[in-house]
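User: Design a sequence. Structure:
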């Protein structure tokens, strides 16, 4: 029903030029330039209609009484205390400002990378819970930054379209006989494409960094949701709900950036086509130079072969004459036609290999147990660090190796702990240039201490 109402009222949303469109634009500009007041009279409207008819060569002036009916739906209202005065609605002002922004987009001279960094950036420690993430990048709150980036790309497309038309105009212009002037004009236009290509590359790097940072935050919510030490069922459900909400935010932003990538890909194609125009310009110069050379040779040959015959100029017998170019027609006949019957593929039945299945299951279960052991040790050490317990990496590896009998497990646990400590500003990693060798293992490392600041 809403869709049908849009079609029924479409002619009320956008008035035609001489039935109120030019009038709304003129009123807006005169109010902005303070030529008339915020509240204007019917006489001021009539004067504007007369000027519009004169400027655009209309035979007759539109009467205000005949066109005001449709405009009163969305564009003009009566003053509540002074009914003989009128004012523009906010809808009318928004439509006109939208038109001005389309014609003179404010983001045309603004770097694309800065738009990404201003709209999509995550500082260290900025997001600590799901409420802060929703407030910063939720679907409702992110509409403004999305609109900024979209408007910026639209301005970039318009700018490159204009530059592309200028390049074509330079190539088609027959008045630019001088190669130097053509190259000079071409270089001025082509410089815009080079600047935009560098700006797009930097913007993509900024976008990719933001997505990685956001993925780390979503991973933290997932780790909190699968924490096996939480016994309260309500707390488990809340953490899982937080992770699902964070994942929805990430997917929504990812879909938006996918659409941005498609638009950037189209812009890059325009830039690539512009570079092909440079090759076209080079070929054009080569063709002109070749034509001049051939004409020069032709004139020299004509002068060398010319002689006077009576009162006219004639040509010697060695001067080449025009001949009819022809080529013998060749008809090729196919020697062989392939009419062989198609051979159907035969399916070879596959038999179950129970021994192979058993080995693969054991290998997968072993790897799952291994990952679970690494996760349990890592989480235990992280909690100890947060509780203020200092951790020596060499002692940690000795303990894990002794308990699990595998030094590779100890190495993975130590790597997880170092990675966790490096990403947390409240945890300090102190490394001394003192080589420590693990007992009963050919494995050495620097003395490393992890503590809470």
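Assistant: Done.
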């Amino acid at each position: 029903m809403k869709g049908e109402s849009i079609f029924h009222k479409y002619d009320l949303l956008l008035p035609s030029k001489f039935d109120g469109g030019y009038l709304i634009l003129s009123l807006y500009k005169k109010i902005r330039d303070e030529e008339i007041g915020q509240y204007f009279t019917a006489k001021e409207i009539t004067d504007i209609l007369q000027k519009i008819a004169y400027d655009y060569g209309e035979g007759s002036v539109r009467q205000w009484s005949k066109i005001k009916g449709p405009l009163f739906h969305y564009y003009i209202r009566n003053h509540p205390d002074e009914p003989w005065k009128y004012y523009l609605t906010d809808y009318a002002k928004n439509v006109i400002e939208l038109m001005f922004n389309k014609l003179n987009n404010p983001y045309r001279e603004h770097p694309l990378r800065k738009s990404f960094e201003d709209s999509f950036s995550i500082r260290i420690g900025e997001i600590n819970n799901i409420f802060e993430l929703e407030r910063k990048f939720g679907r409702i709150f992110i509409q403004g930054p999305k609109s900024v980036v979209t408007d910026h790309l639209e301005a970039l497309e318009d700018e490159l379209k204009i530059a592309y038309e200028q390049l074509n105009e330079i190539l088609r212009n027959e008045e630019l006989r001088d190669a130097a002037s053509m190259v000079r004009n071409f270089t001025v236009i082509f410089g815009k494409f080079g600047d935009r290509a560098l700006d797009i590359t930097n913007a993509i790097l900024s976008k990719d960094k933001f997505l990685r940072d956001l993925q780390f935050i979503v991973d933290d919510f997932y780790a909190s949701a699968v924490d096996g030490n939480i016994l309260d069922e309500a707390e488990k459900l809340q953490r899982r709900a937080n992770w699902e909400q964070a994942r929805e935010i990430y997917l929504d932003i990812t879909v938006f950036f996918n659409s941005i990538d498609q638009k950037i890909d189209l812009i890059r194609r325009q830039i690539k086509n512009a570079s092909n125009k440079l090759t076209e310009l080079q070929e054009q110069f080569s063709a002109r130079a070749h034509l001049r050379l051939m004409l020069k040779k032709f004139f020299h040959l004509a002068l060398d072969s010319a002689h006077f015959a009576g009162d006219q100029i004639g040509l010697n017998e060695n001067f080449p004459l025009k001949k009819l170019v022809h080529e013998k027609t060749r008809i090729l006949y196919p020697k062989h036609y392939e009419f062989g019957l198609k051979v159907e593929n035969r399916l070879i039945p596959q038999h179950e290999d129970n021994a192979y299945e058993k080995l693969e299951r054991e290998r997968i279960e072993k790897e799952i147990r291994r990952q679970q052991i690494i996760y349990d040790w890592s989480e235990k050490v992280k909690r100890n660090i947060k509780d203020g317990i200092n951790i020596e990496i060499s002692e940690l590896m000795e303990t894990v190796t002794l308990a699990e009998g595998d030094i590779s497990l100890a190495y993975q646990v130590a790597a997880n702990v170092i990675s966790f400590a490096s990403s947390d500003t409240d945890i300090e990693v102190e490394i001394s240039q003192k080589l420590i060798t693990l007992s009963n293992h050919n494995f050495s490392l620097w003395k490393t201490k992890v503590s809470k600041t």
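The chain is about 65% helix and 10% strand. The mean pLDDT is 76.
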